[in-house]
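Data card: per-record layout.
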Amino acid sequence: MKTFPSKHVHRPKYLQDCFYWKGRGYHYSEPAPTAVVAASEMPMESPWDGLAWVLERAKNADFHHVSNLRHWILDRHSDPTLVSACLGLTADAGGDSDLEFLAELMIEGPDYLRIEASLAAQWSGVLWLVPFMLEAWRVLRRRADRDAIETNIVNLLDPIDVEPQFFASGRSDVEYIETVDARLAELKAALGNDRVAVSGGTAVDMNRQAWLMRKSLVSRDTAEWVDWSNFLIWRRKFEVFSGVDCSGFYGEKGIFQPQKASVVLDRYLASPMGFEVGRRYFFGQLVPRRGKDG
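The structure for this 294-residue chain is written out next.
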């Protein structure tokens, strides 16, 4: 593959505000060029076009090209926003080997990739990645870096309606690891295995999540609307699983738009899609996993 010498590669206009979850997420700001939509081979003139090409294939249930994103993830010259976007798509649409790549980054990568890969592991939701997140946490020394990973662990393991157990707990390293391991064992026993996708301390149930999202938007004076910390996480996972365009959830400067979010959710809930609880989906298509789906 070609290496791009410039760290900051121009982002095409059609990708403005894409891969940003208070922006357009996985939906383009204008039609993508033919080289992205229809080309049989991955375009290499721009890494952003290459990323969009992989995204287009994944939207059509062709997940085999996600591994091509590793080149830009590992290239130290890559724009950090490109790396983040590539890791996000790896988490959302990658198969087992792509998730194993995330695990490798958390064990062997430079510190900045350990942290980014831990966030990507949270987006995937797969329970077996948590021990690798924990190993990255153990190795990192900066408090801010550990806080970032603790936040990821909280978002996966802690129920949303309780005080977080796994953030700023005051436990020693040994105690913290033992506490997370105990929670993992509890969830594995309850869910049957560690290949289940979880969020908020339970197996991902997308249609229940959509209902909770709508329930959270209780009508009140517009000036009093509050964007829960969970809503942005929910928006991302809902769009990833369903493919529903949620770009209207946030307006200019990332201002939450609850009425627009309500309209989108009401439309979806009137005719919800079918999702198997605990499985990963991308734009309505089941993401295969080894040994069960080929």
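Known properties of this structure: The chain has two domains: 13-151, 204-283. Residues 13-151 form one domain.

See the next section for split statistics.
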